[in-house]
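Lecture 7 notes: from sequence to structure.

We start with a single chain of 361 residues. Read the sequence below before looking at the structure.
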Amino acid sequence: MLKVVRKWVDRYFAQEEAVILLFLLVLSFGLILAIGDILAPVIASVVIAFMMQGIISGLERLGVGSAVALGLAFGTFIGGFAVLLLVVLPLAWNQLRSLLADLPRIVDTMRDSVAVLPQRYPQFIDEAQVQDLLKTASTELARIGQTLVSYSISHLPGAIGIMIYLVIIPILVFFMLKDRHQIMNWFASLLPADRPQMSRIWREMDQQLANYVRGKGIEILIVGGASVIAFMLFGMRYSLLLGFLVGLSVIIPYVGAVVVTIPVAVVAYVQWGISPEFGYLMLCYGIIQILDGNVLVPFLFSEANALHPVAIILAVLLFSSVWGVWGAFFAIPLATLVKATMNAWPQRQDHDGNPPETTVV
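Now the structure, written as C-alpha cells:
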C-alpha cells in the first residue's frame, strides 16, 4: 500500500511546480472559506474589472488612447452603478414590499385553487390528500419565512458597511483597470520563474473567465430587460421585480430558470387565473427562456470550454453550498479551472519519456 501511495505521489508531486500549484489552490480555497464575506467587495471589483476590460480592449482596437479608453470604461461603470442604485433597486424594493404585503392574498388564492381539485378530478385526488398537502405546504412556508427573516437580519450589513462598500468598489475597480499590469506582474513575481504549466492554466483561465464574466453580464441585461419589457406590456404586477429576478436567474444554469418560473407563474395565475392572458404571458416567458438557452448562450459563450450539463449542475450544487451566491455565479469558471488544472497538472514522465495518458472530461 505504501508503495502504491509513494508511486502516486512521485508521479503527480515530483515537480516543484506541482507542489506550489497545490499550495496555491489549497490557500485560495481556505481564504474563500475563512474570509469570503470580507473579500466580497474585492471579488465584486475583480468581476466588474473583467467586464470593463473588454470595453477598454475594444476601444483600443478602434484606435482610442489607453487613458481615454480607461476613462470611458470607468465612466460607463459609474453611470450604470448609479442607475442601478438610484433607479432599479429602489423600484424593485418597492415592488418587493408590495408583493410581501400581498402575499397572504396570494397564498389564500393558491389554497382555494388547490382545495377545489378533489371536486374537479375526484378520480385522481381525494380530500384527504389535499388537506395533507395544504398542511405540509403551510408548515413549509412558515418555516421558509422564518428562515428568510432570520437570515436577512443576521446577514444585513449596517448602513456604514453599505456606504463603505459603495465607496470601496468603485475605487478598487479604477485601480484594477489602471494598474492591472503592475498588479499581475507583482503576483507573477511571487511564483517560480520556470512555470510552464501554471502559465498554461492561467492563459486558459484568463480567457475563459473574461469571456464568462462579460458574457454573463450581457446575458443578465438582455434576459432581464426583455422580461421586464414583456411583463410590462402585459400589464403584469411586480413586472420590474420579476424581470429583475429572471435576469439574475441566469447566474445559476438550468436551476435558476426552473426556480424563477414558480413566482412568475404564481403571480400571473393570481392576477388572471386560467385565462388567455395567463397563457400568452407564459408563452412569451417560455420563448424568452428558449431563445436564451438556444441562441443567446451559444452566441455569448461560444469560446468557452464545453462542459457536460451534469458537470455544470454538480458544480453549481458543490460551489454554491460552499460559497453561496458567489459559488453559483462562478460555478462554470471554477469547474473549468478544475478541468484545466487536471489536464495541465505537472506529471513525472514514464519510462518512454511521455506523461501518462489522461482523460478529458
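The CA atoms of residues 219 and 296 lie 7 Å apart. Keep this in mind for problem set 3.
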